[in-house]
Give the backbone structure.
Amino acid sequence: MNKITMEELKSGMCRWPFGNTEDEGLSFCGKPSDPAAPYCEEHTIMAQAPSRRPKAT
């Protein structure tokens, strides 16, 4: 997987973050993204996936 820095991130690139936003090592996916979405196809699907956490009883 090719991760890019904030400085390398351009329009039309996937903005899916890797790491904590407060860390210096924050990086982004960088694959081509759909013009109507901030993420590539893979990460758009992940962002829309339902939570898999067990329901509290």
Q: What stands out?
A: The helical segments are 41-48. Residues 1-47 form one domain.
